């Protein structure tokens, strides 16, 4: 990623170029939408007019800039970024060999996850739990594919959970919200389907799947980074103001510490440590972030989507709250405590 800075009509601009493409433009630290004007010509609107970019010479490390249909000026891309990029070629070649064995790694991790949960509980629970994890992560993968983000697939991590890995970076806060919510949304579909099949077959195993899926996804919706709910909270709050995002995310960390103390969840403490690092990185990169923020409508809509998915999982758990089965009623007892 190469950063180019310039001043136009008293306004400080900087543009981000990656792999020979202009990916983001900022004016006074405010992200500007990029429009296609003609072949090779892009433009962005700001308070005092329109700035145009000629990207035809990016391969020769030059970017053309024109303001309000004025004369073109050519800006040289920083040479040190090119050299830095070449330094990563060797690392990329080394990583390529590791990627070839990705399927073997996935299978080994999946087998270890099933074996680990079966050892702790039972093989029935292990299969149900892993199935819920796979559906949840598949929701993330489908959302990434919708945004044309390349994925490496799903990795199951024993005693931790699952992870949907992507090859590309997201470019907007909206993508972060949708990708984060699609995992719990697919999990909600699993829960509802489990309830329906339970009433058709009267087999308690399907009710257990519904409740387990609801509990798992509700945990992921906690407003704590790096959980899905924490990503939604981060995208909304950092779209308002950088300092608002920092304060809200730190409040989520304190909430997580309180939960881990009350329920003795040491694994949650590990998540909080990872999430705290993510908050620090987000804060340090606040002035150079390439993520297009949510507008006010996007912030409200994201919050409503989040609350609806949370309400759906709580409704599934409440449906079995009065069940005579200890397993089916336990999640609601935990939630009500």
Strand content: 15-25%
Q: Can you give the mean pLDDT?
A: 78
Count of alpha/pi helices: 10
Main sheet overview: 5 strands, antiparallel
How far apart the termini lie comes to 48 Å
Low-confidence regions = 80-86
Question: What class, by secondary structure content?
Answer: alpha+beta
Helix content: 55-70%
One letter per element, helices H and strands E, the order comes to EEEEEEEEEHHHEEHHHHHHH
The general outline is elongated
- Largest sheet, order of strands side by side? 5-6-7-8-9
- The value of Rg in angstroms is 24 Å
Number of strands: 11
Written overview of the protein:
This protein is α+β, with helices and mostly antiparallel strands and 337 residues long. It is 59% helix and 19% strand. It is built from 10 helices and 11 strands. A 5-stranded antiparallel sheet has the order 5-6-7-8-9, with no helix packed on it. A hairpin with a 2-residue loop joins strand 5 and strand 6.
Short description:
With 337 residues, the protein is of the alpha+beta class. Helices cover 59% and strands 19% of the residues. The protein has a 5-stranded antiparallel beta sheet with strand order 5-6-7-8-9, with no helix packed on it. Strands 1-2-3-4 form a 4-stranded antiparallel beta sheet, with no helix packed on it.
